[in-house]
Predict the structure of dITP/XTP pyrophosphatase.
Amino acid sequence: MKEVIIATKNEGKVKEFKEMLAPRGYDVKSLLDIGYTADIEETGQTFEENAIIKAETIAKETGKMVIADDSGLSVDYLGGRPGVYSARYAGEEKNDLANLQKLLQELEGVEKEDRTARFRCALALSIPGQETKTVEGAVEGFITEEPAGTNGFGYDPVFLVKDKDKTMAQLSSSEKNKISHRADALKKLSALLD
């Protein structure tokens, strides 16, 4: 088994990475698994810049292969917001419910065709002594008027997947892992891992 550290404390993300990488022979560890509790300051202006900052910081400190992701929601009507601020959209404390409520409030009264959005994910692969590589993935959809579904996390309950007629939170884990922004980016990352 090859060990890979996923530079996150988010259990939802770690679960997705495990489901996708374990069958490929990777022993997936989170920051919590390795006892890393410090916060990494994400000072980048893009998802890609933040992913690189996280991957390189952890790779430097552990000497191990690290995958970091930075991902979030971009809503066209809101000029791309919440974007890199997706996790802290409603304030400094990460709060999925507060973020979701703020988003729905900002889109109140906006017609469906103007509620287009996409989940975006940048992944950075950092291996000590090698140049960091990055890939990006996305999934298109719309923001619903109210939450639906209990799977997933974050904005999943209000993100209606284009061509699916279901929110991300109404999909099973296996369905989500086939079409999500992270799955799209991981497919591209797979080529790099090979």
